[in-house]
């Protein structure tokens, strides 16, 4: 297709987008539970004498002003703000996957607003905006500082590193949010649904107050457009020569983007990935329309595309599900699905960047400083210490809780002579400890295999979407097929975990499973699956929502020995296979060519090992719910302690993973007893900072 060369083309596009927003907005106004249709609406607007004065006893004017117009205005306001924020962040980072979501801006704004609600602090709208702005700015600053994006040091930010940093920080902030939602459920009622992005409004007040600030942000961004045009070329030295203050321009653009995001979160909650999808669509149009690449035009066009996406998503959601069914489903769910597809599509088009090879080199260097005998003695000492740590975690898990026990109580329980109160406590704690130990061991092994096969020590089953897929299967079994019992839950969790892995593999398989592309596609699929899981959760029985949400946060609550059996069986079957393939793992973790030269069938071996890790991760979800970072931290600690040989890394990572989950479970049950904090949230609070530190080092 030939590029359009008329200078009026951008103005024509803007006019087309405005007309499209008006048309979709008119359709949007007809969507609702009152039965007010488009004919009634048009008759009311023109003042026709046949226009209905009320619908089901409710005045038409009340229907419009009380719900439909506020919802419409919120959609336009939030979509426009997020679109502009997204294009600003992509321009200063020179990264097509940068957005308020992938840079953790949305998560930072959401957690601060949740904290205000949890502690019962009542603040006006402008103060809520400031609170959200502070949280979002802190998160964005941390991500950008870790990755060097927009720092004025030259070069663009590595896509994988930026997304990994943003995802890790967002996970940690989401863990804090989840903890607040669980511990302060009375004060945070309704925030779970709002946390997925909801356009439901009682009046136009919030949107009307946000509009002037958004317009000021738009004007400020357009004023900077010439500077952004130069920055987007990717050469900081040239920009400095032309008199562009790179650092100041980047800082101002980030502040404007965070402010717009904070306002959108304050109005409608965290509406996912509009700030990613709208800029991507605008840049695609810029390849066809001359003049659209200039930020003076690109910025408002992206805002209009964002508004159109939000309105269209909301109208389609209510048209497909019906007004009654869609009332409880946040608009952020379809927009999150859109963002997940954008991440996957862009990742499929990227070339492998081969990040963090320095980390592998460092691990190898550490191993090389010891003789074979010294390395063996070091391995045995580390393994013994890890086993002692695991033993201590098990003892703590058995004794800690709302009722603290003694070792003598455990001895009496083993002889079946314990008092009823002690016996009842241990009857529930022993299966929980067993589930935590086995699931942690499985996640440690799975993470080691994933990191070795994709040659990326920052990868883990959670980031590849495997645990999210298994969680989706468990939620399906719980919400849609509640009569299937435990066998169906196990089968669906494993099946959906493997299906997610298969989907990621098929999408990433273009010239082989390149590590960076594989990780990014896994992250994108994980986001999409999480949106579907939230959708099912919100459609379930409201009384089951807190219980399922707690389980999805990673917990051993209510576990019995039958829940432990699948993990134990898979773990026992996997270990001999991994012992046999340990040298293959060593070779594959080095580079792509060495194992081929030595006769290792790389693709087949990689596929088999990743399938095994997917099964291990899936059955761990059955035992302890969705737990992240164990598959990241345990293998990395093991590699740092005993070197890079998988014959030594695997057992140490397995024991460390078991100790991590067991200790997190015990602490979660005892720190604020009788209330409990899910083990997954405890691990995320520790694992995410460790991940950030590791990312900074690499």
Architecture overview:
This protein is an all-alpha fold and 698 residues long. It folds into 2 domains: 9-23 and 72-307, ABC transporter involved in vitamin B12 uptake, BtuC; 357-697, ABC transporter involved in vitamin B12 uptake, BtuC. Helix content is 73%, strand content 1%. The chain contains 30 helices and 2 strands. It has helices at residues 9-29, 38-46, 60-93, 105-118, 125-147, 159-183, 191-194, 205-223, 225-231, 236-241, 246-268, 274-286, 295-321, 323-326, 332-349, 357-368, 372-399, 407-414, 420-454, 466-479, 485-508, 515-539, 545-552, 561-580, 582-588, 594-597, 602-624, 630-642, 646-670, 679-697, and strands at 54-55, 58-59. Strands 1-2 form a two-stranded antiparallel ribbon. α3 (60-93) packs antiparallel against α11, α8 (205-223) packs antiparallel against α11 (246-268) and α19 crosses α28. It is globular. The two termini are 43 Å apart. Mean pLDDT is 78; it is low at 1-6, 152-157 and 353-369.
